[in-house]
Structure formats: structure tokens, C-alpha cells
Automatic annotation (TrEMBL):
Gene3D superfamilies: 3.40.50.920, 3.40.50.970, Pyruvate-ferredoxin oxidoreductase, PFOR, domain III. Keywords: Oxidoreductase. InterPro entries: 2-oxoacid/accept_OxRdtase_asu, PFOR_II, Pyruvate:ferred/Flavod_OxRd, Pyrv/ketoisovalerate_OxRed_cat, Pyrv_Fd/Flavodoxin_OxRdtase_N, Pyrv_flavodox_OxRed_cen, THDP-binding, Transketo_C/PFOR_II. The keyword Oxidoreductase applies. This is 2-oxoacid:acceptor oxidoreductase subunit alpha. Residues 14-175 form the Pyruvate/ketoisovalerate oxidoreductase catalytic domain. Transmembrane segments: none annotated. The keyword Nucleotide-binding does not apply. SUPFAM superfamilies: Pyruvate-ferredoxin oxidoreductase, PFOR, domain III, Thiamin diphosphate-binding fold (THDP-binding), TK C-terminal domain-like. Residues 210-451 form the Pyruvate flavodoxin/ferredoxin oxidoreductase pyrimidine binding domain. Residues 477-569 form the Pyruvate:ferredoxin oxidoreductase core domain. Pfam families: PFOR_II (PF17147), POR (PF01558), POR_N (PF01855).
Length: 585
């Protein structure tokens, strides 16, 4: 028995590739396996090669796999594009309809199964994905009853006949495979799962759930890949909590509407990707100047411009840290797992209100759309903090000619905050420089006072885990640094190198700005070599490390920017090169 395997289904976009993977995966995670799924899809509605790769394991996994055990093909292009990924001894299960050709029978066995014919005989060729699921389940020896309840959940509202037809398609696909292969493939038999019930979700779902848990009651947004699922999730769920989602005419309106809602005391946010964040830049500055809380989710994708809208990249880092005109206090945070995406989203709203500033929640396509097994979230950990919001507290009488000192020059830089309608809370709000009561003021003295006040807010910033640290070695050969979804590939690289006698520490940065110098600097100083793993062409995260910590002579970049996520073996090979080179110096 094996402890993990990798399965991939591929075909033309619009052929039901995603639903095939979803149904295949459901049976496995309900048996207690850990899963990690990643979709490769093109930026068009229909047509073009697409695939869904799912890693199944008896242990937690946070990365795509290096190779492939089973390839399910709906066309020859799927075989041609993905064959090199198959490991020695892997198998191909292909639709008999297109007379599949195996490039190398000595590497992988080909089983031609009539997916389309089975489905057509049962009523519609659309059910060919069910026949593929049945064949896949048979290859692994999964009891087909595990799929019956799933089919009923998905198609139950369409009637018993549709449910029965889909179940038959699964069973006939399995029967045909068993007849051709002689039963399950022994080399692909998985050790039993632990039977525990887990969620299986994309990062965007966790972000949306975190927003609800944080008390959000408004999301204003404009659709864009890969952020749209956040809005789609909340369109369905948020009204059940008394909230609403508004699709705005553009990203500028989305950001300013969220600012207006937050000014009124409602927790609100928006979500987009790089092009949308570019349009929101001025509004983010408005949030900083008016000291109005604002949370913006940036689900990074390949750029610039439209770039690679459906592909992985981490190239917005510098733009999110420095992308405003003028200088404002701003927080940029970057979760690395689905669990962190949920809990950190709650913290993003707490920080935005406590420090009365914009918070950029930096995800990436792999984290946002990659699907992972997740233990149920612990809602007892949720804490709502609203900072100096004077809600329900009596305010002192004010001089009607002056107004409430909304921007009072306080020691910590954070001023008392009121919302419209509060007695004695009347004040002026403007994007131009202003005095303590909000009235415009362009005097040199006032400008310096207000700038200093705003900029010292973050001196007291508290973030529970600004850096995830796995550092058991006092003076390691190697320190691996990353952010976002590279965590899984880095963790597996660390384990492989440790098994070979290389001492490795790992630091994953979750607070990008203000940069966590106190946490990172000691780790770098003690390491012999430092490798920064990131998905962009210019080493933006490494640039931040060098800018804030130094140690340029120690740092090596491992970069990938072809639109695909890191495989653990790619990071491992690069790190082996660093270690090997160092040993000869």
C-alpha cells in the first residue's frame, strides 16, 4: 500500500473537468484522506486545454505533487501535454472515442474506456465524466457506494431518473475498467484514511468565511479572476447574516463604497486582483488620509496588464507595500494556508479598525483557487476588536464652531473615532490635509503634526504571528524564506534536505509590511546561507529582506514566473545546488 498518490483529469474547457475532479475528491476526503487540488485553466469560457490535479495522502499536504500516478484523458492533447509528468509505472485512463495513443508503453499503461459511449447509451454524453469517475475509483479499489450519496446530493433536485443514470454511468465505467485491468491496480492501492471528517475548500471560500466571522455586513466588488469566488460565496451566504453584496460598476466604486460603509460603522471590504488594485490605489490613499478602516483582498495573478489572468504569480508585493502616492500607514499581510486565510481575515478587520488604516490582504492564485482539506475552524478563537470606536460612549460637549476632534494628536497616533449620528461627534471629513477637527489646513506646522501622528500609529502594531517559524537548528546550513502558497513546497523541500543531513530552518513571512525585522534578522544572522523562494521575476520578497535586514551576500533567489506553482522537487533541486556550490567554496 502507498501513503499518497496523484490523479489528474484533463480535456477541453467546458467538458466538465472541474466537476469530475470534485466528485472524485469528495469520496476520498470523506474517507479521511488529506487532499490538495489545483486547476490549470485558460482565460476563456470554453475551449483550450484544462486539467484538475488532485493529490491524495494519509498525511497533510499543502502543495502540488512532483509527478503523476493516474492521468484521466478526455482527448489526446491531455496525454500529449501531461505524459511527461507521469511516473514510471503510472497509468492512463482515456476515452476510447478518440482512439488514444500512448507515447511510451514502457513507462505507463494505457486503458481505453468508452466514457462517451457509456454516457450516450444512458441518455447523454454529458455523463462521460461520471464514467471516468467510476473507472478512477475502480483503479484505486474504492467501493462505488461512496459515490452514490455524492451523486444524490448533486443531482437529487433533478429527479430520481437523473440520479440513477449518473450512478449507472459510474458503475459501468468501473465495470469496464475492471474488465480491462483485471481489478484494482495493486501498486496504486492507498493505505486507509483516518476516517475524520474535514472540509475541502479553496482559499477564497476561507477568506469569505473569515469575513463573515469578522462581522462583515457589506462586500462591494467588481468580478475578476481569481477573486470572484469570494463575491460569489458571499452573495449566497451574507444575506443570511443581515448583510449584502453589491457588484459595483468598477473597482474604484468598490473601494470607495467600502470606505463609506466603514465610515458609517459597518464592517465592509472589497476584493480584486492586480489590475483592480491599480484602480483602487487612490482610494487606498483616501482611507489612509481620512483614517477610515479599509480591508482590500488582492488575489495575485500573472501580470502586468491582463497578463496571465488564470495563472499563479506573486508579483504584486512591492506594489502593495509602496503603491500609494504620498505616505500613509498601511498593513500588508499574507496568509500561507487555508486555515490562516480564515483566521487572518478576521485579524485584518481588527487591525483596520484598531489602527484606522487600510489593510491589504495578500493572497495569490494558488492559495485562492487551490483546494485543500481543512480541519473545522474553531470559532471560539474569533475575537472582535474595534479599537477607539466611541460606540455607545458619551462624548464631551463640543464647540459648534470647531467640532469633534476626530483627528486628535494622540500619543499613539490613533484618534477617537465616531460614526455619523453620534451626539457631539460632528466633524469634517476630507481627503485634503486637515486639522484635528477635520477642517482643511495647509499650514506647515499642522502638516507635520498630522503626518507624524498618522505615521506613528503602526509603532504599536501587534500581529500574533508575523512570521511562521520552523527553526530547530541554532546555526543551520540553510534558511528557507517564503510567503503565501509556496509554504507547502518549502516544507517538503526542508524535509527532503533534512533526510540527507542538511540542517534547514524555515521562515514564512505573514506580515509583509511593516516588515518583521525583529523576527527575521536573527534567523538570517545565524544561517550559513539564505534562499528566498517566490513566484516573480525580480525577487521582490528578497528585495524587502535585503532592504530591511541586509545580508545581501547570504541571499540566493529561487524564482518561478511561468504561471505554474512550484513543485517541491523544483525548490529542492535549486536548494541542492546552493548547498553543493557552498561546499566547494
Amino acid at each position: 500500500m502507498i501513503n499518497q498518490l496523484s490523479w489528474k483529469v484533463g480535456g477541453q474547457q467546458g467538458e466538465g473537468i472541474e466537476s469530475t475532479g470534485e466528485i472524485f475528491a469528495k469520496a476520498l476526503y470523506r474517507l479521511g484522506y488529506h487532499l490538495y487540488g489545483y486547476r490549470h485553466f485558460s482565460s476563456r469560457i470554453k475551449g483550450g486545454h484544462t486539467n484538475n490535479k488532485i493529490r491524495v495522502s494519509t498525511e497533510k499536504v499543502r502543495s502540488v505533487s512532483d509527478d503523476l500516478d493516474i492521468l484521466v484523458a478526455f482527448d489526446q492533447e491531455t496525454i500529449d501535454v501531461n505524459f511527461a509528468e507521469l511516473r514510471q509505472g503510472g497509468i492512463i485512463i482515456a476515452d476510447e472515442k478518440f482512439k488514444p495513443v500512448n507515447p511510451d508503453e514502457s513507462k505507463a499503461r494505457l486503458f481505453a474506456v468508452p466514457f462517451t459511449k457509456i454516457a450516450t447509451e444512458l441518455g447523454t454524453s454529458l455523463m462521460k465524466n461520471m464514467a471516468a469517475v467510476g473507472a478512477s475509483g475502480a483503479a484505486l479499489g474504492i467501493p462505488l457506494e461512496n459515490y452514490h450519496s455524492i451523486v444524490k446530493e448533486i443531482f437529487g433536485r433533478k429527479g430520481d431518473k437523473i440520479v440513477e443514470s449518473n450512478i449507472q454511468a459510474i458503475e459501468k465505467g468501473a465495470e469496464y475498467f475492471n474488465r480491462e485491468a483485471g481489478g484494482p491496480i495493486d501498486e496504486l492501492t492507498l493505505a486507509p484514511g483516518d476516517g475524520k471528517q474535514r472540509m475541502y475548500m479553496i482559499g477564497n471560500d476561507a477568506i469569505a468565511m473569515g469575513a463573515i466571522a469578522a462581522g462583515v455586513r457589506l462586500m462591494s466588488a467588481y468580478p475578476i479572476t481569481p477573486a470572484s469566488e469570494i463575491m460569489e460565496y458571499l452573495i449566497d451566504k451574507l444575506p443570511k447574516f443581515g448583510g449584502t453584496v453589491i457588484q459595483t460598476e468598477d473597482e474604484i466604486a468598490a473601494a470607495t463604497m467600502a470606505i463609506g460603509a466603514n465610515y458609517s460603522g459597518v464592517r465592509a471590504f472589497t476584493a480584486s486582483a492586480g489590475p483592480g488594485l491599480s484602480l483602487m490605489t487612490e482610494s487606498i490613499g483616501l482611507s489612509g488620509m481620512t483614517e477610515t478602516p479599509l480591508v482590500v483582498v488582492d488575489t495575485q495573478r500573472g501580470g502586468p496588464s491582463t497578463g496571465l489572468p488564470t495563472k499563479q504569480e506573486q508579483s504584486d508585493i512591492m506594489a502593495m507595500v509602496y503603491g500609494t502616492h504620498g505616505e500613509i500607514p498601511k498593513v500588508v499581510m499574507a496568509p500561507s494556508t487555508v486555515e490562516e486565510a480564515f483566521y487572518d481575515m478576521v485579524e485584518a478587520f481588527n487591525i483596520a479598525e484598531e489602527y484606522q488604516c487600510p489593510v491589504i490582504f495578500l493572497s495569490d492564485l494558488q492559495l485562492s483557487l487551490g483546494k485543500q482539506s481543512v480541519d473545522p475552524f474553531d470559532y471560539d478563537k474569533i475575537e472582535i476588536r474595534r479599537g477607539k470606536l466611541m460606540n455607545g460612549q458619551p462624548l464631551p460637549e463640543i464647540d459648534k464652531n470647531e467640532g469633534f476632534k476626530r483627528y486628535e494628536n494622540t500619543l499613539d497616533g490613533i484618534s477617537p473615532r465616531t460614526i455619523p449620528g453620534m451626539k457631539n461627534g460632528l466633524h469634517h471629513v476630507t481627503g485634503v490635509e486637515h486639522a484635528e477637527t477635520g477642517k482643511p489646513s495647509e499650514t506647515a506646522e499642522n502638516r507635520k503634526i498630522q503626518m507624524d501622528k498618522r505615521l506613528r500609529k503602526l509603532n504599536s502594531l501587534k500581529f500574533k504571528t508575523p512570521v511562521y517559524i520552523d527553526a530547530k537548528h541554532e546555526n543551520p546550513d540553510l534558511l528557507l524564506i517564503g510567503m503565501g502558497s509556496t509554504r507547502g513546497a518549502i516544507e517538503e523541500t526542508k524535509a527532503r534536505l533534512e533526510n540527507e543531513g542538511v540542517s534547514v530552518n524555515h521562515a514564512h513571512i505573514r506580515l509583509i509590511h511593516p516588515f518583521p525585522v525583529d523576527e527575521i534578522k536573527p534567523l538570517i544572522e545565524k544561517a550559513r546561507h539564505v534562499v528566498v523562494v517566490e513566484q516573480n521575476a525580480t525577487g521582490q520578497l528578497a528585495g524587502l529582506v535585503k532592504l530591511n535586514v541586509g545580508a545581501r551576500d547570504k541571499i540566493t533567489n529561487v524564482l518561478k514566473y511561468d504561471g505554474n506553482p512550484f513543485k517541491p522537487v523544483e525548490v529542492y533541486n535549486e536548494c541542492k545546488g546552493v548547498v553543493s556550490h557552498a561546499s566547494h567554496v
